[in-house]
Amino acid sequence: MTASPLPILITGAGQRIGRYCAERLLDDGQPVILTYRRERADLDALLQRGAIAIQADFSTDAGIFAFIGTLKAQVTALRAIVHNASEWSADEPDPANAMHRMMQVHVQAPYLINLQCADLLAHGGPADIIHISDDVTRKGSAKHIAYAASKAALDNLTLSFAARLGPAIKVNGIAPALIQFNEGDDEDYRRKALAKSVLGIEPGPQVVYQSLCHLLDNPYVTGTTLTLNGGRHLR
Fold first, then answer.
1. Is 147 noted as a catalytic residue in this protein?
2. What's the first-to-final CA gap in the chain, in angstroms?
3. Which tens digit of pLDDT belongs to each residue from 106-129?
4. Which one of 36, 147, 189, 220 is the catalytic residue?
5. pTM of structure
6. Please, what's the b/e burial string for 105-136 (b: 16 or more CB within 10 A of its CB; e: otherwise)?
7. Closest by alpha carbon to 226, among 234, 196, 213?
């Protein structure tokens, strides 16, 4: 990836894939701003490397606007915004709250941040917004209806903002399926999950970073969601 002196904002980068991408960007000499919801001891390593961390709660409008205010008080321009913050809640036992929380984090937060922070990207150089969606939007989910619906709405934001903000700002998405297992996942679950794709592997977070770099570096892609599912659509 071509490093820029302007920072890249990654929301929800306190753990797992978001954290990995932040680390790799820093490795490449790219300034990074990240958001996190809860305090984590391992954030210190990113801060020591020069990352700026902002605690943010995207589950309420007040929390979203508070974050926007804090961000604008610290920077005057951004190279890119990567919407990685995510919420995972089951539909039961409180479906109304589940849908509200999913839509707040996956739709309302990117929507308001894009509208309010587009001026930070309007500096005349390369500028990107990237939404991290989910391959589940391709077919829906009987067990996680609210989650799938909110991620599908995020895919639609990609199209709308690409049309609104181009050509100065490219807007794209990445829709991963299985990327890495959790430590507590048992062998039976792992075997069944791997069998859902043609390639049948646990690729690791580096494939998301590779996709992120592709979208940042390619000057001729906008309004596109890059599927990252190992061929699940072929099963």
1. yes
2. 33
3. 999 999 999 999 999 999 999 999
4. 147
5. 0.96
6. bbbbbbbbbbebbbebbeeeebbbbbbbbbbb
7. 213
